[in-house]
Amino acid sequence: MDTWNGIPIIDDQTPDSFVFDPSYARGAEPRDYAVQPTEMMAAPSEFNLPKPEEWDEYDRVLVREEATLHHVVLRAREKGRFKDCYQNGHPFCWSHSTAHGIMVAREVANQPPVKISAYMLACLSDGRGYQNKGGWSALSAMTAETIGACPEPMWQEGKTSRSLDTPAMRAEAAKYKITEPMVDLTRDVYFRNLPFEMVIGCLLTGRPVMVDFNWWGHAVLGVRAVKIEDGSWGIMILNSHGLNWGDRGFGILRGSRARPDGAVAVNTVQKTVSAVASPEAKLAA
Amino acid sequence: MFFATLVLGGSVALICAEPPKYPDWPTLPSVPDKMPDKPVRVDPGPVSSLLKDQLYVVQSDSAVQLLASPPGVVVVTEEVGPIRIRGEFVDGKGQVETRLYEKKQVFLIERVAQGAVELLMVPKGEVVRRVITDDQNPIPPPKPVEPKPDEPKPVVEKSPWDNAPGMRVLIVYPRRGALPALQQSIVTGKRVREYLDTKTAQEPEGKAYWILKTDEDVTGLTPSWQKAYGTLKGDRWVVIGNGAKWTAEVLPADPDKMLELLRKYE
Fold it and tell me: Suppose B6 and one of A248, B36, B132, B145 were both cysteines; which one would form an S-S bond, judging by CB atoms 3.0 to 4.6 Å apart?
């Protein structure tokens, strides 16, 4: 398998035994536009992002200054400020991508560290979590925008009980909303190749992007635009399969496998001082 | 002092003195220059005429103020470099092209009316003057350098953190825009972040710095941070305080300048 700086590259040549390893759950489903029409999303044209001819310069500077979101996550992990969310056999990749996206956006802002409950997001997204069903990132992102996202002390990893949906939990979740109207990078009014360019532009400007891939049946968080070689760009992803997957949880998608079928960027999240005495906050302090 | 004349839309006479030999002296277009005591008329050409829709670009690595006098003849736009610019340049070949201007400060001068105009550039206390005119109008007298009218000004006189001990820093950047790569490196890069993690005060919720975007809802923050957020109006700025002194100003151009500014408030 090809690698880039020790990080596995997933492309058309990558063995299925790695990509579709049955020991790792996935769970992304094509977006159901009856449930979530395109009009529910903000237009990407409202954002001013780097053009392809500017990518090289961004890459050169961001790599030199260790300023990609990949670097942000690695530093946060070292300081105990970022605890990866783990799917652990459930088909909730599509809510783990959003939970990771909120956590990365909070880290960029230096907000108190919390571990967002991907299971809460799955359960309150059209009830799919309670039914152990798959979904897509925009669905969980919409939940994070309207209801919020609860930190783990109040809704622990692996839990899918309706009894956890309490007024106190909802009040706490409201402090961790995605506040900026989401960027739907796949609105069909745009060119087919635009979503990839928009994802790269978001990543170069420090915006984490939840990306869904129908070919993979999987959703992950895009954290870095990678210049694999001149003229060849890939998306570095943070998976939700733990630190043993790929290189400490990271992999790179290249070529046709890097073209997302769904992509939502987190632009801003609720700015609050954490009211939950989370283990991460205590550790960081 | 540096002084020159350029004719717009007709024959050209250039008057200039040799600029001082600063390593980061502003870079001007390569337009033929003549000594002031020997003004010479030269044939018009693509290099010497600043036509409508052409760009006259000045770039500098040091802090420079650029003023046009009298107003109304040209429009001056300031950008942060490195920046790629597509257009027809005064020292180009008469065609639209894309250029990369690599210095930190880039000024785009575009003609909007016939007439003579003088450009005043003030890097590090030295005055650089360029006069752009035509042979129908006299060279205007130089005007005194004035502060840039669009420089954001603090709207409060007192530190938002009052006299709270320890360093506090607020960085704000465009919510829907893209910072240049070097400024993006202030926001997410290792050097500034490690400095802030090390040097800022410890507050109950963590180290005393926030990196926010414009037009965010900050009502969930403590009152002093809300006050800091409301200190300046602009799309990228930094507020720094240490209990004894404070500042609120435009976000520096790169991590080096940011760290240089931060160290003044340790």
Answer: B132
- Winning range, highest mean pLDDT, from B119-128, B131-140, B254-263: B254-263
- Candidates A63, A78, A110, A274: best to mutate against B (most CBs of B within 10 A) is A110
How close does chain B come to A61, measured CA to CA in Å? 6
ipTM: 0.88
CB nearest B185 (choices: A61, A273, A284): A61
Give the mutation candidate from B172, B185, B225 for the A interface (greatest A CB count, under 10 A): B185
**Minimum distance, in Å, between the CA of residue A220 and any CA atom of chain B:** 21
Predicted confidence (pLDDT) per residue in B31-42, tens digit: 554 444 443 333
Nearest to B36 by CA among B13, B12, B11: B13
DSSP codes of every residue in B131-161: EEE-TTSPPPPP------TT----S-SS-TT
Total CB pairs under 8 A between chain A and B? 108
Any idea where the domains of chain A sit in the sequence? 3-33+48-277
The class (CATH top level) of A3-33+48-277 is: alpha beta
Write the pLDDT tens digit of every residue in A32-67. Answer: 666 655 544 455 556 788 989 999 999 999 999 999
Give the number of C-alpha atoms closer than 13 A to the C-alpha of residue A142, restricted to the C-beta side: 19
What are the tokens at A106? 């909070």
What separation in angstroms does the CA of B208 have from each of B36, B164, B234, B239? 56, 11, 22, 12
d(CA A88, CA A71): 25
